[in-house]
Design goal:
The complex is a heterodimer of chains A (300) and B (291). Chain A is mainly alpha-helical and 300 residues long. Chain A has twelve helices and two strands; from the N terminus they run αααααβααααβααα. In chain A, strands 1-2 form a two-stranded antiparallel ribbon. The mean pLDDT of chain B is 91. Classes of the chains: A mainly alpha (300), B mainly alpha (291).
């Protein structure tokens, strides 16, 4: 039981990190990312391959995964930065699906749909499962705390102000002399880095990744976390991640008690409820539990 | 013919077949985009809904393929209007990002409704088994030809509707310039409902046509979505003739890639096509602008 609670806290932490990353892209810069799970997968696969096949230490693989996701994110933003936002929507969704297709089929590299197992975790061999879980929770909590502080700093800094300006009116930001394209690319890369880091943390925690894990539904969970907490602010992203994990886990327990449902029907009902909840939140409560507060500008 | 040329000819023929079928949902997507101005990812689940509506008609009710295909169009169209009216319409005022995200949530919700009712197993339509025809070394299946004919007929009907009827002209007017259309007294709500019906109906029809060639399951639509979007983007998002040209390009391209790639990478080919077009000519082959 305690292992279960710790494991849920770790996944909430990983979701929180993803929500913080997506908040930079969506909440601050107002860019769409329908393929958050793709960047998560990039981070997870890079570090898994680097540690398993090339013998990198865990920290180096994690950094590599983070950088890889950031580069792909920056590239996506660069490619679509001048186009209407719908193209970014299509490219991000397409990227996530393509990564899933490639990782399912490039068997010599990724072991296909069987997935990669035996990904090392820090001190996994020499600790009891509970100790390992606690250690990992500590690592994740520390990383989330740092990411939170950095995100807060980012949002307050002139950089964050420019992102909000671009979100609210790109033309005005450009007229004010801001290099809109450069800001968009950097914002997307920063957000994608957090998503990739979350993926790397996930891989080293569970020691197993497979294409089935990186489904579009995961992107919805993160959007749900952001919307539940409140788009555009980092405290909301943290709270939202915990709310979503609690919701996901409680439906996991409740649905088996609904009489007359097969396993497939239960799973379908659960996914349906998640999608429905997202629609309801998006429609009726876009400000979330913790609405975004814009920093006051002191009169000079 | 030397064997490699024969193989290429066979792949081109296959590509034209799959491309023509792909054009049907791509037209649906692009016409919704032209009028309502957001990428409607719910095309995926409507293709699945159409495929399953056709399955119920064909296998459970024992109807032949043609009436089943019509039913697939009508059911998916009706679901499309209802879903747009109840779910997506309120989001449009909030901008296309919110609407696009809502359409993803909608597609997962609908897909799971289908899964709830039918489960995950693969299902096939009740089709007569026929021997392939051979024309000068090229194999063609009679069922494929029938699918091709259905797709062409549906597209011809749509083009006639848009070119010759008053309602069709009104739809084009709204796509072209919503402000001017509303000044001329065209009711945008009616046009929105109409385009949802026709667009999602075509998605459903396309889903069934894809299923006739293979099998169907709740993910049928989602698996095709990258190719459908690739067709629309390559042809130029918002342009109906563009969707046809784009679908043929993507269809033939996907098949020709089989010369050196395994068929499992099919949707990666569609994605590569999107990236190429966005790099070289973002507005697509026949589109007007992309910024």
């Amino acid at each position: 039981m305690e292992n279960y609670v710790i494991a849920m806290a770790v996944s909430a932490g990983i979701y929180a990190l993803m929500a913080l990353g997506l908040n930079v892209i969506w909440g601050l810069a107002g860019m769409i990312n329908l393929g958050a799970v793709g960047f998560f997968a990039i981070g997870a696969y890079i570090t898994a391959l680097a540690t398993l096949k090339l013998g990198f230490p865990i920290w180096a693989g994690t950094i590599l995964g983070t950088i890889g996701a950031a580069l792909v994110g920056g590239g996506v933003a660069l490619l679509t930065g001048r186009l209407r936002g719908d193209y970014l929507a299509i490219v991000t969704l397409g990227l996530a699906e393509t990564i899933r297709v490639i990782s399912s089929n490039m068997i010599w590299l990724t072991n296909g749909t069987d997935g990669l197992s035996g990904i090392p975790g820090p001190l996994r061999g020499s600790l009891s499962p509970t100790q390992f879980n606690l250690l990992y929770l500590g690592v994740v909590a520390a990383i989330v705390a740092v990411a939170y502080l950095l995100s807060e700093r980012l949002a307050q800094a002139p950089f964050g102000r420019v992102l909000r300006a671009i979100r609210d009116d790109e033309q005005v930001a450009a007229v004010a002399g801001k290099h809109v394209m450069g800001f968009k690319v950097r914002a997307f890369a920063i957000g994608a880095a957090a998503l990739g880091l979350a993926g790397a943390l996930y891989a080293h925690y569970t020691s197993y990744i497979a294409p089935d894990i990186f489904v579009p539904l995961l992107t919805l969970y993160i959007k749900l976390a952001l919307l539940a907490g409140g788009l555009g602010n980092n405290r909301g992203a943290l709270i939202g991640a915990f709310v979503v994990v609690f919701f996901l886990e409680s439906t996991r327990f409740v649905i088996p008690y609904v009489p007359g449902l097969s396993a497939v029907q239960g799973a379908a009902l659960r996914e349906f409820l998640i999608a429905l909840l997202l629609l309801v939140l998006l429609r009726y409560n876009p400000a979330g539990l913790v609405p975004e507060r814009l920093p006051r500008i002191a009169p000079s | 013919m030397p064997p490699i040329l024969a193989e290429i000819a066979q792949l081109v023929v296959n590509g034209i077949m799959t491309g023509t079928i792909l054009a049907v949902p791509a037209i649906g997507l692009t016409s919704i985009h032209a009028v309502l101005r957001f990428p409607n990812f719910a095309v995926a689940s409507h293709a699945t809904v159409g495929a399953f509506a056709g399955y119920v008609a064909n296998v459970k009710l024992g109807l032949p393929v043609l009436p089943s295909v019509v039913l697939a169009f009508l059911v998916a169209g009706a679901v499309g209007v209802a879903a747009d009216e109840l779910v997506l319409k309120p989001f449009r005022a909030a901008g296309f990002i919110t609407t696009a995200i809502a359409s993803i949530a909608l597609t997962i919700a609908l897909e799971n409704l289908v899964r709830f009712g039918f489960g995950n197993e693969l299902r096939g339509y009740d089709l007569p088994i026929m021997r392939d025809w051979r024309l000068g070394g090229i194999r063609v299946g009679p069922q494929q030809l029938q699918n091709l004919a259905i797709a062409v007929a549906a597209m011809a009907a749509l083009f006639a509707f848009l070119a010759f009827t008053r309602t069709g002209k009104a739809m084009r007017a709204v796509a072209d310039n919503p402000m001017l259309a509303s000044i001329k007294g065209i009711n945008a709500d009616v046009v929105a409902r109409l385009v949802s019906f026709v667009g999602m109906g075509l998605a459903g029809l396309g889903g069934m046509l894809i299923g006739l060639d293979t099998t169907i399951d709740p993910l049928t639509g989602f698996r095709a979505i990258l190719s459908v979007f690739a067709a629309a983007v390559v042809g130029g998002l918002g342009s109906i003739p563009g969707a046809v040209v784009g679908a043929l390009t993507v269809g033939v391209g996907e098949e020709l890639c089989l010369l050196f790639l395994s068929p499992d990478y099919r949707s990666a080919v569609g994605f590569t096509a999107i990236l190429l077009v966005l790099t070289l000519r973002p507005r697509g082959i026949l589109g007007q602008r992309a910024y």
